[in-house]
Amino acid sequence: MIYRTEHYRVLRFSGVDALAFLQSQLTNDVAALSIGGWQWQGYCTAKGRLQATFALARTAADTFDAVVPTSTIEALAKRLTMFRLRSKLSIEIPADRAVVLSTSRESQLADVTTLSLPDGRALQIASIADAETLPAATEVAWNAWQLANINASIPEVTAATTEMFVPQMIGWDTIAPGGGVSFSKGCYPGQVIVARAHYRGAVKRHLERVEYALARQEMMPEVGVTMTLADGRMVEVCNSVLRNDAVVALVVA
Q1: Taking CA 4 as the corner, what is the angle to CA 26 and CA 138, rounded to the nearest 5 degrees?
Q2: Which end of the chain has less neighbouring CB within 10 Å, N or C?
């Protein structure tokens, strides 16, 4: 199945300095990204805390499109624009592009950028005109997509969890495909702290999938909250979804 979604939007970086700018700001090695390829990326504070996570596709030599959760895209665009200074690039949320969720890697649309996931699903960037010919993702379809992300250990930083985690806490350095952090690319905001945590093994909390039955009248745990598991451990909820009266979540334990 294929759906258009409002849960993600496209953030575009274009111009002769786009590559150099992104290389200096993001966690992964943008210079290693070939035209037509994509990689996971993160944007950190100076203290190494993730403000956003997203997928970045290189669509031309000097053009990059990011698929960003809608809850964080405005803040991310504003923050990156602050550091553009004299760099020759445009940072915009294009009105003519949309994000499509596909349960297979084949596309029904023309002129799409396909970001294939390891489990056979794909994120696709399409024209808004083409996307509008598709059904909108229902709550059921969106929950199924979130569940697939959780099962594939694909965490997502949203507005509720921004600045809560260093990349290693949510496994961003090992996320498939390819990982979302480069430890050899050079400086970016928070790089010293992220690298120090990596080489010294300083991160003691890590991502974990949990599943438990939701008791009658018990509230679904909200993303970003701290909760206590049945074994007594305190964890922070990164992503969660309800499946057949059971909570399935990625938590940092």
Answers
A1: 115
A2: N
Tell me, what DSSP letter sits at residue 73?
H
175 DSSP 8-state letter:
P
Residue 44's SS3 state is strand
What string of H, E and C letters represents the secondary structure of 100-131?
Answer: EEECCCCCCCCCCEEEECCCCCEEEEEEHHHH
**Burial zone of 61 (CB within 10 Å; 0-12 exposed, 13-18 middle, 19+ buried):** exposed
Selection from 79, 51, 59, 55 nearest residue 14 by Cα: 59
Residue 236 has which token pair? 């922070």
The tally of CA atoms less than 13 A away on the side-chain side of residue 199 is 9
pLDDT digits (tens, 9 = 90+) for 83-121: 999 999 999 999 999 999 999 877 788 889 999 999 999
Tell me the whole-structure pTM to 2 decimals: 0.96
